[in-house]
From TrEMBL:
<dbReference type="InterPro" id="IPR006674">
    <property type="entry name" value="HD_domain"/>
</dbReference>
<dbReference type="InterPro" id="IPR003607">
    <property type="entry name" value="HD/PDEase_dom"/>
</dbReference>
<dbReference type="Pfam" id="PF12627">
    <property type="entry name" value="PolyA_pol_RNAbd"/>
</dbReference>
<feature type="domain" description="HD/PDEase">
    <location>
        <begin position="255"/>
        <end position="379"/>
    </location>
</feature>
<dbReference type="InterPro" id="IPR032828">
    <property type="entry name" value="PolyA_RNA-bd"/>
</dbReference>
<keyword id="KW-0479">Metal-binding</keyword>
<keyword id="KW-0808">Transferase</keyword>
<keyword id="KW-0547">Nucleotide-binding</keyword>
<keyword id="KW-0460">Magnesium</keyword>
<keyword id="KW-0819">tRNA processing</keyword>
<dbReference type="InterPro" id="IPR043519">
    <property type="entry name" value="NT_sf"/>
</dbReference>
<keyword id="KW-0067">ATP-binding</keyword>
<keyword id="KW-0694">RNA-binding</keyword>
<keyword id="KW-0692">RNA repair</keyword>
<protein>
    <submittedName>
        <fullName>HD domain-containing protein</fullName>
    </submittedName>
</protein>
<dbReference type="InterPro" id="IPR002646">
    <property type="entry name" value="PolA_pol_head_dom"/>
</dbReference>
<dbReference type="Pfam" id="PF01966">
    <property type="entry name" value="HD"/>
</dbReference>
Length: 479
């Protein structure tokens, strides 16, 4: 039996071992900590401890021994407890065996042995355990060949995958998520079982599904996970807006690109430049409006007119259905989808100052995110076109910098307020006030006047007079 005592050199493990001895319990570290140590994946902050007996009592005893006596959070319904020590979260559970009903992923739980507990684990690489017992401290318990699967970079279930995925369908998403995070292959029989059991995903809450999707999106190469979701036909059940983009139509010899696979390339591209989850969501959804807006015209070929506007509306519907946050995060994704073609249009417009001002005004503080998204959207395999597009965006970025430094348009507020317009012309809130404010904004964005108070006030007077309004004299104002 292999021994990995060096993995347990942190004093928390000797404390857990001592606490277990005092309670006459067997205890083991199991799951992610063991897996990640064997893969040399940094310093894990989460530790799962299984006790052959009461995990809750073991947690309480560990807290007693620790100098700072951390609070123990007890989750009686699950038979688990958690405490924080040494900047780590340690979860304790009693060894158990599980059985499932067809309409629920919540198991019927009974006390069990370590073997029972390893049997219930989702994958062989997560069933690896290290002993914390005095007589064999650090010994690896690997009943399903998890170590070999780690070396072979394989995701495999300990028991029959059909039963494993049917019992708890969330494991299908976890298999795909681990494949994406670790760049492992899902074993063939397991992959087939995911496809066969895909409809079982319907009993999983949207929140749990989104949790796994977020982890896939945050992986180094999200296309691995989304490609597997597509291959197993899970994606059509979860995000049909994406699978609707797949395929290439041809009419009269004119074709369009496959927008689904293009989308996955865009997500991979953006993953190289940002860890922002919501910007990655924007990349994933930036083209979803293309499926419902796709049309063929004999003279110009395939078009997707208004796909950004339609896509932004679809973002709200998707977020609501998936119970994603309907707050500023959703609005950010909508904004990125709505504006995703704007910088490209500016390139076509020879980067005029007025077009750049409008882009900065509309994007506000999100201008950098928008440019990052648009650059990720370049997926051409033609080196000359690829370089040309990127060089064009460099020009746009420089133009944005120059215009912003000169005109201060980002998060622009008109130099003249609505209150001042009303005071100047002795008006109450009215249509005329709005017309004058809009005219000042347009004049600044078009470069007719600079973005400063004196120029804006002079323009306000002239615009008011055009509307038949007369400014109140200073004497009248003082009265």
């Amino acid at each position: 039996m292999q021994n990995y005592k060096e993995a347990l050199d942190h004093k928390i493990f000797s404390i857990i071992s001592l606490a277990a001895q005092k309670l006459s319990l067997e205890s083991y570290v199991i799951g992610g900590f063991v897996r990640d140590h064997l893969l040399h994946r940094g310093n894990p902050k989460d530790i799962d401890v299984v006790a052959v007996g009461s995990g809750i009592e073991l947690a309480k005893k560990v807290s007693e021994i620790l100098p700072h006596k951390p609070k123990v959070q007890v989750f009686k319904n699950f038979g688990t407890a958690m405490l924080r020590a040494f900047n780590m979260e340690i979860e304790f559970v009693g060894a158990r065996k599980e059985s499932y009903l067809e309409d629920s992923r919540n198991p019927i739980v009974e006390n069990g042995s370590l073997e029972d507990d390893q049997n219930r684990r989702d994958f062989t690489i997560n069933a690896l355990a290290l002993s914390l017992n005095k007589e064999n401290f650090g010994d690896l318990l690997d009943p399903f060949g998890g170590l070999q699967d780690l070396e072979s970079e394989i995701i495999r279930t300990p028991l029959d995958p059909d039963i494993t995925y049917s019992d708890d369908p969330l494991r299908m998403l976890r298999a795909i998520r681990f494949a994406a995070q670790l760049n492992f292959k899902i074993e063939k029989e397991s992959l087939n079982a995911i496809r066969e059991n895909r409809s079982r995903i319907k009993i999983i809450s949207k929140e749990r599904i989104v949790e796994e999707l977020n982890k896939i999106l945050l992986s180094n190469k999200p296309s691995i996970g989304f490609g597997l979701l597509h291959k197993t036909k899970l994606l059509k059940l979860i995000l049909p807006e994406l699978t609707a983009l797949e395929g290439i139509d041809e009419i009269e010899g004119q074709r369009h690109k496959d927008n689904f696979w293009h989308t996955l390339e865009v997500v991979d591209n953006i993953a190289k430049n940002t860890d922002d989850l919501w910007l990655r969501w924007a990349a994933l959804l930036h083209d979803i409006g293309k499926a419902p807006t796709k049309k063929f015209h004999k003279k110009i070929g395939w078009t997707f007119h208004g796909h950004e506007f339609v896509g932004a509306k679809m973002v709200f519907q998707l977020f609501k259905r998936m119970r994603l946050p309907l707050n500023d995060k959703m609005k950010f994704v909508q904004k990125m989808v709505l504006m995703s073609s704007r910088p490209i249009a500016i390139v076509d417009d020879h980067t005029t100052d007025s077009a750049v001002r409008r882009l900065i005004f509309d994007a506000g503080d999100n201008i950098e995110n928008l440019m990052t998204l648009c650059e990720a959207d370049i997926t051409t395999k033609n080196p000359k076109r690829f370089n040309r597009y990127h060089n064009n965006f460099k020009i746009v970025r420089q133009k944005i910098k120059e215009v912003e430094e000169r005109d201060h348009i980002r998060n622009f507020q008109p130099p003249v307020s609505g209150e001042e317009v009303m005071e100047t012309f002795n008006l109450k809130p009215s249509r005329e006030v709005g017309l004058i404010k809009d005219a000042i904004k347009e004049a600044i964005l078009e470069g007719e006047i600079p973005n400063d108070y004196d120029a804006a006030r002079d323009f306000m007077i002239k615009r008011g007079e055009k509307l038949g309004l007369k400014p109140v004299s200073s004497e009248q104002e003082s009265e």
